[in-house]
Amino acid sequence: MNPTGLDLPPLLAAFVFGLMGGAHCIGMCGGIMSALTFAVPPSMRHPARMGGLLLSYNAGRIISYMSAGALVALLGTLFSLSATARLLLQVFAALMLILMALYIANWWKGLLKVEAVGRRLWRFIEPVGRRLMPVVHIPQAFALGALWGWLPCGLVYSMLAWSLAIADPLQGALLMGAFGLGTLPALLATGLAARQLSHLIRHPATRSVAALTIIAFALWQLWTLTAHNLH
């Protein structure tokens, strides 16, 4: 069962979703990536060292996504999801993308109400992450990335709707893993060039481009769902 509603194999669709969401990562999470980079002592910021730490951050983050995907898909197995329910989850995922795009561009902040649920959990996780800084070791970076993966994020919530619809823990984990790999290029680039990109990340034009890219992807998903259900 393809939970994405797109004319692509599920894992490829999830990867493309993450790749397109990279615009969101630059607009929203780039500041976090920059903060993690600057948390490394200046004497340790040579390219090889930073490359290892950034890969470790992101490996931990992707493992967290996969864990969440497996848990949500396991929840899906407890329900007999009808074709209509699965379609509604797919539409929900696309609408979440549009809401998130409006939030990124500062056009509308309604998504804050949805992310408020995740913030309750994040209040307990964030202090643990702060105790891991400054980062000086690879395992430390991996642990911090694994905590970062639970940061409230509309993009991740949209993807988890796909995992819930697929109702298979292994497939849910793989789907989230493919999504996480898709977000990797943007976050690695942001981390490696944190100082150079810091002003660009905060620029309204960057956020607008990110928002329009995500809206285009969401509309593509909605169009594909509509086309499938009309035949």
TrEMBL record:
Domain Urease accessory protein UreH-like transmembrane: 13-220
Organism superkingdom: Bacteria
Pfam family, one: DsbD_2
Protein keywords: Membrane, Transmembrane, Transmembrane helix
Residues spanning the membrane: 12-41, 62-81, 87-105, 141-167, 173-193, 205-223
Name this polypeptide is given: Sulfite exporter TauE/SafE family protein
Source organism of this protein record: Vreelandella neptunia
Lineage, opening ranks: Bacteria, Pseudomonadati, Pseudomonadota, Gammaproteobacteria, Oceanospirillales
